[in-house]
From TrEMBL:
Subunit structure: Monomer.
Highest taxon in the source lineage: Eukaryota
GO cellular component terms attached to this protein's record: cytoplasm
Organism: Schizosaccharomyces osmophilus
Protein's gene: myr1
Gene3D superfamilies recorded: 3.40.630.30
Protein name: Glycylpeptide N-tetradecanoyltransferase
Region spans: Disordered: 1-20
Keyword annotations: Acyltransferase, Cytoplasm, Transferase
Length: 463
């Protein structure tokens, strides 16, 4: 029996309802799968030896009074000294303007950030991606925190924060941080280094009068403000299948599966074109109006819009972020906008393929968003979103991405299933450090299924 037949047999017998690729991509996306969570005995609040000492809400606690959990904001009381590490290690502030130091972070993450449980897939962040993500407008060098081995100078752990403004319902957090890229070298795991990294980056934020932070994770910690679910859409089904991750559903055939995910080569939105620098003000305005509909949202300035959606380019062209606008040919008004970013994964030990090229749906906005409660307005808007995001699939397909991923944020839960996105096994927990508030709906219902009845409350996409 040839390799393909063996693979076919394996995949057709797969116990995953929607297929291995989803489970693997969920893991890869750094979000532990439900399966992993099911296997481990449930951790109670008291088991969180570190997190129970932190100003975060407990599980299931009623929010009687919204506000900071620790109200202290006295910078004078913040230690000027870093936390103590074991004598073999030292803190370092990574200077990401230096390509060598950027490369060190890239290598640490590439080798240690996240793998699926069988070590077949691993995130393959590019240095350009990290530069884009970590050197955003107003970034603070001191918040790119590393740990080195004193003797060898080797970077063995990293955590970062970047400044941003978020809006939670009617409250604006003008000084907030987004914490990301927590990573510890595999040889230093389970040694309680994570609490030190978190406390150190928190100390550095406090020194700049920042007392709240947002962060996400697949693992459940006390206590998420919102829980979203992953969605995945095969573009190159054949490749995903040949790697061994996309299943061949019972009763189907490769020809049928390829036909199912086939996309036209031309986009269909009138006036669609790559975003340019001259569009920044209009995109900022459109995106801000659109995001006002959500309970928790990133509050974008024009400078951030330029950086987030164009990077260093005058015209959107990748290789990390792609952004498109639809321009009304008569009025020249930008009516719609969408963006996606590239985050590939290495395929380890496969003779045929080295990587899976994954695109992730990022921010989008459409002026057709419902202005009243009527079904007709919602239907018009949903149809428009389908047109736009189908075009983003077409463009991603032309760019030879293999899979397109999304989370149930913004209005995604209303239309992505119709575009052949499938529910993943992974969940993405959103957290706010040092703030207690009522939960924000994350686009899934009480059974954790996609909630097509209403948009999610989340207007915040974390990379
Ligand atoms: C996540 C990672 C840094 C944890 O390191 P570790 O060596 O397993 O854990 P440590 O012994 O250092 O610390 C354990 C504590 O960190 C907490 N922790 C683990 N992962 C965490 C995360 N992603 N975010 C916040 N806290 C986390 C644990 O809950 C535990 O605290 P508790 O006692 O309150 O439960 C490490 O596994 C890693 O680098 N993984 C790959 C990258 C990754 O998954 N990063 C997280 C991105 S969301």
């Amino acid at each position: 029996m040839d390799k393909k037949n063996t693979q076919e047999e394996k995949n057709s017998q797969s116990s995953y309802s929607e297929g291995g690729i989803r489970e693997l991509l969920d893991r890869l996306a750094l979000r532990s799968s439900v399966e992993e969570e099911k296997e481990a005995p449930a951790k109670t609040y008291d088991d969180y030896k570190f997190w129970k000492t932190q100003p975060v809400p407990k599980f299931d606690e009623e929010c009687e009074a919204e506000g900071p959990i620790d109200p202290n904001t006295d910078i004078e009381k913040v230690s000027k000294e870093p936390y103590r590490l074991l004598k073999e290690f030292e803190w370092t502030t990574m200077n990401l303007e230096d390509d060598n130091e950027l490369r060190e972070v890239y290598e640490l993450l590439t080798e240690n950030y996240v793998e699926d449980s069988s070590a077949m897939l691993r995130f393959a962040y590019s240095a350009e991606f990290l530069r884009w993500a970590l050197m955003c407008p107003g970034y603070v060098k001191d918040w790119h925190v590393g740990v080195r081995v004193k003797a060898s100078n080797k970077l063995v752990a990293f955590i970062s924060a970047v400044p941003l403004v978020i809006r939670l319902r009617d409250k604006l957090f003008e000084k907030c941080a987004e914490v990301n890229f927590l990573c510890i070298h595999k040889k230093l795991r389970n040694k309680r280094l994570t609490p030190l990294l978190i406390k150190e980056v928190t100390r550095r934020c406090h020194l700049l009068d920042v007392w709240q932070a947002v962060y996400t994770g697949g693992i459940l910690l006390p206590s998420p403000v919102s829980v979203c679910r992953y969605l995945h859409r095969s573009l190159n089904w054949k490749k995903l299948y040949e790697i061994g991750f996309a299943p061949l559903p019972f009763g189907s055939s490769p020809t049928k599966e390829m036909a199912k995910y086939h996309l036209p080569s031309a986009t269909a939105t009138p006036g669609l074109r790559p975003m340019e620098k001259r569009d920044v003000a209009q995109v900022q305005s459109l995106l801000s109006r659109y995001l006002e509909r959500f309970e928790l949202a990133h509050f974008f300035t024009e400078t951030e819009v330029q950086h987030s959606f164009l990077g260093d380019s005058e015209v959107s062209k990748g290789p990390v972020i792609w952004s498109y606008v639809a321009e009304d040919p008569k009025t020249k008004k930008i009516t719609d906008f969408f963006s996606f970013y590239s985050l590939p994964s290495s395929v380890l030990g496969n003779p045929q393929y080295n990587d899976i090229k994954a695109a992730y749906l990022y921010y989008y906005a459409s002026d057709s968003y419902p202005k009243d409660d009527s079904k007709a307005s919602l239907d018009t808007f949903v149809e428009r979103c389908k047109l736009l995001i189908k075009d983003s699939l077409i463009i991603a397909n032309r760019l030879r991405f293999d899979v397109f991923n999304a989370v149930t944020v913004m209005d995604n839960n209303l239309f992505l299933k119709d575009l052949r996105f499938g529910e993943g096994d992974g969940y993405l927990n959103y957290y706010i450090y040092n703030y207690r508030c009522p939960k924000v709906p994350g686009g899934i219902d009480s059974q954790n299924n996609i909630d097509k009845s209403r948009p999610s409350g989340m207007g915040f996409v974390m990379i």
